Amino acid sequence: MFKRFFTYQILANLARLAISLLVLVSLIRVIFSPTRFDQVINISLLVLVLIVAGFLWQFLIWTARQQKKLAEVLRLRSKFIDLASFQLRSPVSAIMTALSFWREGLVEKLPAPEKLEFINNLYQRGQQLGQVIRDVLQASEFDTEKITFADKHLSLLDVAVVAEQIKNNFTEAASAKGLKLLFKNEAKQTTVKSFADYLSEAISNLVDNAIRYTKTGQVEIRLSNESKILVLEVIDTGIGIPPADQAELFSRFSRGSNTGDLPADGSGLGLYLAKEIVEAHKGGQISFTSQLGRGTTFSIYLPLAK
Amino acid sequence: MMAKILLIDDEADLLFLYTKALMADGFSTIMATDAETGLIKAKNEKPDLILLDLVMKPIDGFKIFSDLKKDLNTAKIPVIILTNLTRQGLYDEMINKGAVAFLEKTDYAPDEISAKIKSILQLS
């Protein structure tokens, strides 16, 4: 890919040089034409050269766009390699350390409660590894094109049931950090047309993020109705998102600058996937409001099923 | 006298495993799950060696490493970097700054870490 990138640059520079030379030579021929007949011929040649130069210029603009796209792909790839190497190594090293500990016969020497903790930790690390792999695979699925869920493939889904399930899934993680995880249903209608697995993934990513970046207080999942829309909010009392980072928040691998200089435990794809999934629903939208040091609210808007 | 090892790592499960493995190998251990506590324990407890992770929050291992090397009380304590962070030039960077070894967590089992510590401290 690097080779292609540099080939583009060399080709573009050569083309620029060729255009400039052609126009210059044609102009000189017009200026120094000995007879009127030669001048007419040379002016015609100049017009021809200018037309060709116009086409070449268009080609160069297209090439420049390709270069820009390629540079973005390279930047994302490099960021992905940095992040993936850390995110994958983290659970892998913990699992390998635990297995090696076991192999050395040290697990047998642990008292019963520590033995249980050892097994739980190993299981959680396996889950962490699974999550990173799932996020990366799903991101590549959405990467190929902008997906829109076709109506005929969707089924009726009670989001209240999904939200309740997600609340139950994350209760332990929230409690471990001393946080309250609440679910409040203020909506009269909670049925939408969706893919259960995808929507559950999007909401889970928001809740996971909220717990990750909240030190004290609570995370609340709230359902309400606005006209014919179901609004699902994930409200936290966390660290908030600095205004400078908000525009890029849904981009892949984006993280707030106040979350530390080094990678978090997540894949860096959670919010990107949440946005892609929500917007794949016809009329689906996602947005957020945030106050630094006070908390963030992510809102998902989905049309209610008729 | 058994050597005293300070482990600074915010991954509590790994810290637990390393501590238990080192204790089984005859080391005395002190734990810190954040950089600030690690720095205080390094000054107060005067360990023989420090095992330091780089990826920690809110203060990372780079900062604590530089603080340890600046302080005359802790500057001479050998520090082994034990991390999952791999990026070009990081190994050379940390060794040049004074780390006695740079170990990637995925490549070193607890018994190998223990052997490395023994070789650095010249213990049999």
TrEMBL record, chain A:
Q: Which Gene3D superfamilies match?
A: 1.10.287.130, Histidine kinase-like ATPase, C-terminal domain
Under Gene Ontology molecular function, one entry of this record is:
phosphorelay sensor kinase activity
Its EC number is 2.7.13.3
Q: Name one Pfam family in it.
A: HisKA
Identify the domain of life.
Bacteria
Q: Where are the transmembrane segments?
A: 6-28, 40-62
Top-level class of the enzyme under EC nomenclature: transferase
Q: Which reaction is the catalytic activity of this chain?
A: ATP + protein L-histidine = ADP + protein N-phospho-L-histidine
Q: Does the keyword Transferase apply?
A: yes
Keywords annotated in UniProt? Kinase, Membrane, Phosphoprotein, Transferase, Transmembrane, Transmembrane helix, Two-component regulatory system
Q: What is the lineage of its organism?
A: Bacteria, Candidatus Vogeliibacteriota
What InterPro entries does its record include?
HATPase_C_sf, HATPase_dom, His_kinase_dom, HisK_dim/P_dom, HisK_dim/P_sf, Sensor_HK_Regulatory, Sig_transdc_His_kin-like_C
Q: What positions does the domain Histidine kinase occupy?
A: 83-306
Protein's recorded name: histidine kinase
Which CDD domains has this protein been placed in? Answer: HisKA (cd00082)
Automatic annotation (TrEMBL), chain B:
GO biological process entries: phosphorelay signal transduction system
Q: Does the keyword Phosphoprotein apply?
A: yes
User: One Pfam family, short name please?
Assistant: Response_reg
4-aspartylphosphate-modified residues are 53
Reading the lineage from the top rank, the first entry is Bacteria
Keywords recorded for this protein, A-Z: Phosphoprotein
The answer on whether this UniProt entry bears the keyword Plastid reads no
SMART domains reported for this sequence: REC
- Gene3D superfamilies linked: 3.40.50.2300
Q: Where is the Response regulatory domain?
A: 4-120
PANTHER family found in the cross-reference section: RESPONSE REGULATORY DOMAIN-CONTAINING PROTEIN (PTHR44591:SF3), STRESS RESPONSE REGULATOR PROTEIN 1 (PTHR44591)
- Name of the protein in question: Response regulator
Species of origin reads Candidatus Vogelbacteria bacterium CG22_combo_CG10-13_8_21_14_all_37_9
